[in-house]
Amino acid sequence: MTKYDINKVKNIALVGHGDSGKTSLTEALLYDSGMITRLGDIKQGNTTTDYDPREIKKGITINSSLAYFDWKGLMVNILDTPGYLDFITDTKLSLRVADSAIIVVCGVSGVEVQTEKVWDFADEYKLPRAIFVNKMDRERADFYRVKDTINKVFGSSAISIQLPIGKEENFQGVVDLIKMKAVVYKKSGEGKPMGKPMFEEKEIPQDMKEQAESYRKELVEAVAEFDDEILMK
Q: What is the mean pLDDT of residues 180-189?
């Protein structure tokens, strides 16, 4: 097993309301990093982190589980945590050992009761965090409606670093507001099994360029508040 410098080990907790997709996101991270060769499915009961017989039967996470992967020389430990109220204490305990948190929010349901609860936990432990809007390919998914709710509940400091390209069954990928490139996902079967990337970078779609520029400006202004050099530029 590869030995890592302690400064190259990151502990990240995936937290959020029940059924927001934390376990499926964990599975995707493991797959994209090459730790597993096949994506598990909650309905089939074969995901990496929901291995307890009760979890498989109920289709929910009951206990926090640890998975890890190597990404560009970093060892990333992922804590897949419960999202339902009955098991939320386990989530809080997991955050005590995390360096940061990813708050997973469903693109359909948006901010829910346990979303606010885990946000408060992250506040309590003073953890840096990012919000991941999940399930953008689902019916009634709406990134901009969810973003408005996030800003109302958690404040205007929640700034987008990506924008979705399409939604529901027409969801195709994201616009990366840092690189100012479109990242378009390939259809199932065209990527990893053939040894090729599962996505490709393209130019931002013409009908999104103005919107992307506006959100990019918002992002730069937010960063400039904490960086004098960028502020001067």
A: 82
